[in-house]
Specification:
Elements: H1 5-17, E1 32-38, H2 45-63, E2 73-79, H3 84-97, E3 101-103, H4 108-118, E4 124-126, E5 140-141, H5 147-159, E6 165-171, H6 174-187, E7 196-203, H7 211-219, E8 224-226, H8 232-243, E9 249-253, H9 259-264, E10 272-278, H10 289-304, H11 311-329, H12 336-344, E11 347-351, E12 354-357, E13 371-377, E14 382-385
Parallel strand pairs: 1-2, 1-3, 3-4, 4-5, 6-7, 6-8, 8-9, 9-10
Antiparallel strand pairs: 10-13, 11-12, 13-14
Helix pairs in contact: 1-10, 2-11, 3-4, 5-6
Length: about 400
């Protein structure tokens, strides 16, 4: 028997997003607005624009299947121009407006800048970056493994492959400083006693050369290199490594796992480039069947929209779906207190990055098991798993 397309779509979307029942009528009436502070221009636009596209897809899927209490959902994207000062302006304006929740920012600096505004009295916000560190019990959430867990998984990934002499080169910006702290903690873990940080160098995010720093790293004879800055600064490191003839395994932030950006690196790609990411960056291979099912459904939703999975979609997907879930389980025009109360107690909600439990993992919902080292496959121009969940050896 042929199932009507609209009914099939409703079934799929209700499972993925927790939306209305099968066969729900399309949403109508005044829209329910959810603001998202994203970098659609400036240095972080390479991922912010993909995140904005993901919101458009989720908005259409939700509205085709009942929306929010029968009303259409609308994601309103506020561009921060990759500038944390503008993040502060947007966050202050949304707080004054009395909104219950918003998505973003999507950069570490933006999350750090807005945290003091929202953490005590709201609105509830979703930092879209693992380098954000929301205060436990605060109104700021970050539905990713913490950057310290990403670092621990990355060191485990190297250690279990016998790569124990590690060098680091990070920029002096916010994400670079956080990476320094996260990896310092990872190196101190008892299981990493055999791992040595043989060199640690820094450079300015605007520098066009890191030749001197790489010369010192080369002299330390490392087996692998860690550089967790995103965008152009990381490109500077890769070019420097190529020019210095250093073809070592390189690990970097999942924020660099943008397919167009990675393709641009092909001319000076190291022998191995791994990304400290989350399990949805290589969707369809999750160990937990329920999570794998959600990933496959995300792939299908994107495919029907003429898109293919990549990091930007994965980075915002669960946060956006959680926002939709909250709004469907609280009254229309909810207070920020109601939104916070619902999310902070949520357990057993399955997304593309794990089965969320905000009692066990305050402010995040998922832990180190949701970290995945991924690698770019040039043949298919896609990301593939390089580790098991938590950084374990395949």
């Amino acid at each position: 028997m042929n199932v009507p397309v609209r009914i099939l779509l409703a079934t799929l979307t209700s499972i993925v997003l927790g939306t209305s029942a099968v066969g729900a009528e399309p949403a109508s009436g005044p829209p329910v607005e959810v603001n998202a502070i994203l970098s659609t221009t400036g240095a972080a636009a390479f991922i912010g624009n993909i995140e904005a596209k993901a919101l458009q897809v989720l908005e259409a899927e939700t509205n085709a299947n009942g929306g929010i209490h029968g009303r259409p959902l609308h994601f309103s994207v506020l561009d921060d121009e990759s500038n944390p000062q503008i993040d502060v302006q947007h966050a202050n304006a949304l707080a004054a407006k009395g909104v219950a929740l918003f998505l973003g920012p999507n950069t570490p600096a933006g999350c750090f800048a807005t945290s003091p505004i929202v953490e005590k009295t709201g609105p509830l916000s979703f930092c879209l970056n693992p380098f954000g560190h929301p205060t436990p019990g605060s109104y700021q959430f970050a539905p990713f493994p913490d950057s310290f867990q990403v670092a621990a998984a990355n060191v485990r990934f190297f250690r279990e492959r016998g790569l124990t002499r590690i060098a680091m080169i990070n920029a002096t910006d916010g994400s670079g400083r956080d990476s320094d702290l996260a990896f310092a903690a990872a190196f101190k873990l008892p299981e990493n006693r055999s791992v040595t940080l043989v060199a640690q160098e820094h450079y300015g995010a605007g520098d066009v050369s890191v030749a001197a720093q790489l010369a010192r790293i080369k002299a330390a004879n490392p087996q692998a290199i860690v550089s967790y800055n995103t965008g152009a600064p990381f490109g500077t490191v890769l070019r420097g490594l190529f020019d210095a003839g250093m073809s070592l395994p390189v690990a970097t932030s999942g924020g660099n796992a943008n397919l167009r950006q990675v393709a641009e690196y092909a001319k000076f790609m190291p022998s191995e480039l791994d990304f400290g990411a989350i399990i949805s960056f290589a969707p369809g291979d999750a160990d937990v069947p329920a999570v794998r099912e959600q990933q496959v459904k995300m792939i299908d939703i994107l495919k029907r929209a003429g898109l293919r999975p990549e990091a930007g979609f994965a980075a915002v997907w669960d946060a956006a779906a959680l926002s939709i879930n909250i709004l469907q389980h609280v009254p229309l025009n909810p207070s920020r207190e109601a939104a916070f109360a619902y999310l902070s107690k949520l357990q057993g909600w399955t997304g593309i990055d794990g089965v969320y439990n905000f009692n066990r993992y305050q402010q995040r919902g998922v832990g180190m098991d949701s970290v995945l080292m991924v690698r770019w496959d040039a043949a298919t121009n896609s990301l593939v798993p390089a580790s098991r969940g938590g950084g374990g050896k395949l």
